User: What shape does this take?
Amino acid sequence: MKKLLVLFVLTVFVAGLYADLMIPTGKTPLNIESFKRAIRTLPNVSREAPEYEFVTDPINLITNYYDYMPGSYCSTPVRVQPDAVGGGVYITFHGRETAGSTRREYYAYIESDGTLFGCETIGIDPEHEGYSGIDIDPVTGDPLVAWHVDLDADPDQEVVVTYDLFHVLGSPGLWRTPFIVIDEGIQTPNGDLDCFIWPYVHIGPSPDPDKRRVYVVANNNYSPGTVSENVLICYADFNVDDLNDQSTLDWTYRTIPLLDQWNQNDPEWIRPFKSFDCSKTDGKVAIFGFHTSDSIFVFLNENYGEGDFEYISLDYQFDVWNPQNLDGSYYFEDAGVPYNLYWSFVHCGHPNSIFTDGTNKLNFSGTLGLQCYEGYYWPFWIYPKTFQYDLNTQEFSFHDLYITGADPDDNIPMVP
Assistant: This one.
């Protein structure tokens, strides 16, 4: 039994350091269980919790019996309203309030003074729901939320969208009935075999100056062989009249051809790990991340998601020396044969990205880990970084999340 805490949500989801794939695959040279047993038997190692304090006391939401990735797949399920339209915080997550109950989608609203207004389910049907994305309309303060759910006899899941008419009441709780935005009937490169779920939601400006544009971006749950998630981008323009009318909005659908090719193993299999973001001041939208060929990449569109996406990438393997001992052996070796070492991405397959410096830079947090070309990796040599793409210089860079000045040369991985 676990308490779902506001502090937990804020820290874990913004970090974006989720893992569901070890890169590269293969055995690890270290015996992890032996290491753990050794740690447990050391006389000076304490298993007691360390002293700690909260800067802001956490707020209990519900007792949750479903704690696996309770928020979004690659986005931030915590959004703050502008001060002029509420100034509160909306949180969405899925949970089970008893061990045998159905997994439902919840929201919580925290007022600007830190008071918990309420924590309730969003939808009205007791269906198996989860993995929500959320963003806030900057004009009304209304949140738009999407999640996936199975609403019919077909085994594929649908993505539904709803919004809370905060601007009508000046408080949360007036949710529109959820409506389907993505279902199995949408024509995509793989026809009816595609199933796009795990949605994220982003709101930015629209080419119509009187409206805003909401993007719902979902990952493909189908691949012909090994998993490679291309995306379905859905977008619609809206204003306060559309919200007051409880409109289902007029949606446009598109995919990105290169991601579709990777999904179809054309000409080779590549799996991307990426996140979507849109700027809040102009028409830039981007997908930023890395893929299984050890490259960092950006898909960039500067026309509100319409037209072509420019693809920019760079190899992100950093070779590093293998220290040799005085007796001639190597620090990392197998029967006297040294491993060929490098640093690259590991254990950060669910990043979330953000435009910064106006709309001139893209950033996501992730990790580089020590690996070797022989196919192994070292689980205790993995370190957090912030990765960046500068739209002006068209250059990728990163910096280590160590104490300032600890690494005198960013863009070269720090060796402990």
Notes: The first strand starts at residue 2 and ends at 5.
